[in-house]
Amino acid sequence: MKIIIILAVIILILVGVYFFTQRSSDTLPVTEEPTETVEPQPEPQAPAPVNEAKTVLGTSLEQRDITAYHYGKGDTEMVFVGGIHGGYSWNTALVAYELMDYLEANPNVVPKNVRVTVIPVLNPDGLNKVTGTGASRFIATDVSTSKDTQIAGRFNANNVDLNRNFDCDWQVKGVWQSTTVSGGSKAFSERESQAFKSYIETHNVSAVVAWYSAAGGVFVSSCHNGISPETRVLGDTYAAASGYKAYDSFDFYEITGDMANWLAKKNIPAISVLLTTHEATEWNKNQAGIEALLKHYEK
């Protein structure tokens, strides 16, 4: 009997121990392995886009942009300029726009060592007087047919003839045909000529072609320093390819403060291409001249 009682006590003790340990394990906190917290990383920010296709040279008196458009990335930079006489020679801006369209459609025409820069409108305020489009693109039907309006469009908002405002034989009063015109208060007094000057002086420009109208010819530049050999080649090459007559100088009337002649003073080869009329762009002739120059500068 004693044995049975002892066994019963032992069993009760074992059962009690079992339930006690189970209860303790249920109530103890469970410790989990620590996990590393990963903070969300911000998305990488792309660098701000750099527009290598154009440069704003400055603004006109009426706050219109004067913009240069670039094609190719070579070290030899050729600059083509239109719209110097604004709305009076509006076709010079159109031929510059035609050049831009041509280069965009045919990028391979620009040699790898060449960069073509086109400034389609150097005098946007003068152009706006005639087209009402400011510095924006326009078509021939936008152009006012009023001769008085077109003549007024030759000058900038200060009534200055920009092609009399550069530093070669500059005078306060210049001549246009038989008319006296303003050359500005001093050389580079105007925002537009200042913008062009700043661009030229901060870039290594190899050659400049400026379009005017109307006489039908290619005129080389000089400023009492003779015609440089490269300027001569530039003029002869363009003239031979385009069919325009080549001239050593513009002697129809006295020119003071001329842009191309100022470039010659700075030893930068430059030619003035005068379209035959004030309306036609003569694109085929000018395309041939441009392509000939691109081949000339190709290495």
Can you characterise this structure?
It is built from eight helices and ten strands. Strand 5 and strand 6 form a beta hairpin. The radius of gyration is 38 Å and the shape is globular. It has a single domain (54-297), classed as Aminopeptidase. The protein has helices at 2-27, 90-105, 124-131, 147-152, 191-201, 229-242, 259-265, 283-297, and strands at residues 54-59, 65-71, 76-81, 114-119, 173-176, 179-182, 205-213, 217-220, 245-247, 270-275. The chain has an eight-stranded mixed beta sheet, sandwiched between helices. The protein has a two-stranded antiparallel ribbon with strand order 5-6. Residues 4-9 and 12-51 have low confidence and may be disordered. The longest helix is centred in the N-terminal third of the chain and has 26 residues, at 2-27. By secondary structure, it is α/β, with parallel strands linked by helices.
A few lines on this structure:
With 299 residues, this protein is of the alpha/beta class. Helix content is 34%, strand content 18%.
Helix and strand layout, with pairings?
Elements: H1 2-27, E1 54-59, E2 65-71, E3 76-81, H2 90-105, E4 114-119, H3 124-131, H4 147-152, E5 173-176, E6 179-182, H5 191-201, E7 205-213, E8 217-220, H6 229-242, E9 245-247, H7 259-265, E10 270-275, H8 283-297
Parallel strand pairs: 3-4, 3-7, 7-10, 8-9
Antiparallel strand pairs: 1-2, 2-4, 5-6, 8-10
Helix pairs in contact: 6-8
